[in-house]
Amino acid sequence: MHNHHEHAAVPKRQVPYLTGIILNTAFIIAEMIFAHYAHSTALFADALHSISDVASLILAWAAVAVFGLRATDTHTYGWHNATILASFINALFLLVAVFVIWYEAIVKLLNGGAEPAGNLIMIVSAFGIVVNFLAAKFFAMAGDHKSDINAKGAYVHLMADAGVSLGVVVAGLLTKLTKWFWLDPVVSIIIGIVIIVSSWDIFKQSVLLIFNGVPENIDEVSVKKAILDNPQVISLHDLHIWGISTTETALTVHLVVKDPGDMTLLSHLGHMLQDDMHIQHTTIQLENNMPNEPYNDI
Which NCBIfam families does UniProt cross-reference here (predicted)? Predict the structure, then answer.
C-alpha cells in the first residue's frame, strides 16, 4: 500500500522570500557604498554577510518555486528535495562568509586602519535592523519557519542580520565615545561567531536529510511502537524513514500480520502515520506470519 499525500504549490509561500530578496538587495548596495566611505570593517562584514543571505534567500525561494513541479517518470517524487539541497548550500555560504569576515577583521587588527565614521556606521546599520526585521516578519506571519528548515534557515539568517546590525550600531557608538578603533574589527569577529551559532542547527539538519537520515521531528522508536501497538501486527522489519523535502517524510516497512488481506489495516496505519506521526508518504507491505523466516528488524 502506498499512501501519497501531494501538496499543491502555494504561491503565497513565495512572498516572504521575494520580499527578503528585494529589501536586502537594495540595502546591500547602499551598505557597501557607505562601508567604503566610512572605512568600517564591521559595516563591510555586515554587507558581505547580507550578500550571502540574499544568495541563500534566492536558493531557498527557488526550492519553494520548484517544490510544486509535478512528478515525472524520472523524478517520481517531483523536485521536493530541492529544499534540502538549498538548506545545505545556504549553510555553506554562511561558513564562507564567516571566514571572509574574520580574515578582514584580523588584517585590520594587525595593520591598524583608518578611523571608522561612527555616525555613518550607526545610521546605515540602523536601517539594516529595520530592513532585516521587516523581512523576517513576513516569515513569522507565514508560519512556515516553525516546521520547515528551509524557511527556518531564511528566517534565522534575517533575524541574525538584524542582531548583527544592532551590534554594529553599538560598535559605532562605543568607537565614537572611546576612540577605541579596535572595537570595529572585534565586533566583526563576534558577528562571525553569532552567524555560526545561529545557523549550526540548520546545517546539522540539512546534512542529516541529505544522507537520508530520520528527520529530527520524527521519533523512530515512537513510530515503531505505534505500528506494533495495533493488535493485527505481529512484528515488523525493514523499517526505513527519511525526508524527501524539508517538510515531508517518507516511510517504508514490511509488516508480519495476522491477515495480510485486511485492507482496512492498511488504511488505518496510513492515516495514523500521517495524522499522528507526520509522515506523509508511506509504503507498507503486509506479509503472512512465517516464524521460520529470518527477518532483519531495522
Answer: CDF
